[in-house]
Amino acid sequence: MDCYTANWDPLGEAAYYRKLDLYTMGWNLREDLRDCLVAAAPYGGPIALLKNKKEKSPSSRPPLEIYTASGVLLASIPGKNCPAVHLGWTTSEDLLCIQEDGSVLVYSLFCEFKRRFSMGNEVLQNHVLEAKVFHTEYGTGVAILTGAHRFTIATNVEDLKLRRLPQVPGVQKPPSCWAVLCQERVTVLLVAVGQELYLLDNTTCSPVTLPGLSPHAGSFLRMAVSFNYRFLALFTDTGYIWMGKSNLKEKLGESICEFRAPPKQMVWCTRSRSKQRAVVMAWERRLLVAGDAEQCIQYPLDEESYLVPELDGVRIFSRSTHEFLHEIPEASQEVFKIASMAPGALLLEAQKEYEKESQKADEYLREIKDQNLLPEAVEQCIRAASYEHEPEIQKSLLRAASFGKCFIDKFPPERFVETCRDLRVLNAIRDYQIGIPLSFDQYTQVTTEVLLDRLVLRRLYPIAIKICEYLRLSEFQGISRILAHWACYKVQQKDKSDEEVAQAINQKLGDTPGISYSEIAARAYECGRAELAIKLLEYEPRSGKQVPLLLKMKSSQLALSKAIESGDTDLVYTVVLHLKNELNRGAFFMTLQNQPVALSLYRQFCKYQELDTLKDLYNQDDDHQELGNFHVRASYASDKPIDGRVASLQNAVDEYYKAKNEFAAKATEDQIKLLRSQRRLQADFDKPYLDESLHDTVYNLILEGNHKRAEQFYRDFKIPDKRFWWLKISALAEQGDWEELEKFSKSKKSPIGYLPFVEISMKHHNRHEAKKYAPRVAPEQRVKAFLLVGDLSQASEAAIERKNEAEMNLILSKCTAAADASVVAKINLAKAQLGKK
User: Fold this and answer.
1) pLDDT tens-digit readout, 154-166
2) Long-range contacts of 152-158 (CB under 8 A, 24+ apart)
3) Nearest alpha-carbon partner for 741 in 703, 715, 778
4) 3-state secondary structure of 307
5) Is residue 587 classed as helix, strand or coil in its secondary structure?
């Protein structure tokens, strides 16, 4: 702490830069970095190395190696025979290996080949001279310079759309330098040819003049775009450095260095709210930090080094070391700057003196409190702690902040608690074995969820789970997701049996919320372990998730059983229809025979969709009853001529007799007989009779006056007497043929009595006809008949004759005192006489 500012280097008047040691690299490289293609992913990501192929022998295949940022080997595979031109990382930490023939190979973090895509035929024919991998809001892109000095660009490798950019005029040799810019959501290229600059978009190539560019600048040799693509820097052969915004409309500054040779690398070193943005350039043995100031910062390089631009600085690694160069944040300057009187610096001193039990602690505190700056002092210490990489310095600053909090009323603790929590997470992942040297600003940018994804990608499941538990993330967001990834990785391990892997996964996962065993089983199936996938599906509680995968695995019988167990008819239908398409007809029917529920549902389906199949099912089962029903439905469901319908019904009769259902057979025979009779009627009278019921047929015949034909139906179909008489009197009354009705009533004794004649006549408002039949009504119904025709006198006589007091009371309720006085007197006298007896 006493020599804390010893490695601070000023750049201009207000800014300081420093290099922090991150790791002593653990890789034992046999060759220098200059002999390798190098790519390092941002946000403390992995490092890929591919040794340049010097030997021309076809058998020589240099290895592709991927390391953590601390130099721990993650994976290694032999390279491809086609020479690689460039390596780059996607935002999801997949490695892009761009080949000389224009093909791009995509590898995972563990050198697992994922896919391959081509940058087009033109690139294939002219080969790749240079390539760049860039990141925009659309995703990860690739830009190619071909041997024909033309550019091809793809802004998103996940959704490949190639664009061939216009040619730079008069170009006879490759451009001296070029860079990818993002202007107003459009990806463009800035190309330097000697002292000329050109801007290439989809359709045009425009010359560009930089604002404020020195007339003696010279030819452009290097370009650098900032991490966020907002700033641009160019280096010329006179040592002149121009810095400005990437929209090429505003200059930020310029600088001149003593070097004339182009740097091997040039990158931006900047941060949000930077006081002095800078460009970092690396030569063979020299590192230069240049800003808008007269003096530059120079660092010696003992080894060949590689620069990795970051959100808030630059990572610099070589064979032996890994460092982080960045601008000192304002909070750290305020607290640690020599002779600083900032409240944070005083609070840190106060805490130190307090630990020494010195009264100076009180003096420092009073000085801060007198200026009402204690909350600001606490904030400065918290912010400064977040920017530190050394745990001891973090603790010292956080102790000072905690000390100051004690003297503030109602100081919100959230910021302090969150910083402590975040620093503990960062210290854990910066460990050498994990090797993710995220800064606080980078961690804030990538978010906890993305950090967990990257730990899972590295298969660091224990530390990821520990972080979830420590941060108290929801199970669905944290532990469940990580365990699911672990299980998907576990199924790829071939050294254990299916039973052991399934048990291990179930023992670890159990019924953890948010876990889908079907997804894990799908992964197992993709890895060629079908039996393991089936065992894992046994733990999946949702049949809707089990069945689709079982069908995909061609375990259709098991899928059908699971669907039936679920009780979900839609799921059963899905499996049955899948089986129908998968199996031949005989095997399909035999499968359904063993599953009665599925067979029943399939029959229901066939009733509405596939009648011929339904018939085949009944034939296979010798189900004569259902076959008979099928033929009956078929005779009415089609537009067959009458002979065809009769034939279908005759088939139904035969099936019913085979099923020993004589009632159904006789009823169907009668229907055949009715259809034939109706066809004759239709032919004789040219009126529609087909498909009418027997009742309607007879009724309509009577209405039309065809009494003989009606009686013929009565005899042929053995219609019951009562039913026929009801039909005939109803039809005659509706027709208004009262003479025929009277004649019919006298033809023989009515099996239904004569009250219906009275009721039918009154229904059609013919009281005169009704009165004819009232006297003929049986004695027990005669009172009701007379009441219907409104003859109270006759009704009273009938009631008195039957000596029925209830009927007498009913008649009395219908009488009026004035009009029916005689009837009332007669009934009252009869009731009195009944009372005496």
Assistant:
1) 999 999 999 999 9
2) 152/119, 152/120, 152/122, 152/123, 153/180, 153/187, 153/189, 154/119, 155/187, 157/90, 157/96, 157/104, 157/106, 157/117
3) 703
4) strand
5) helix
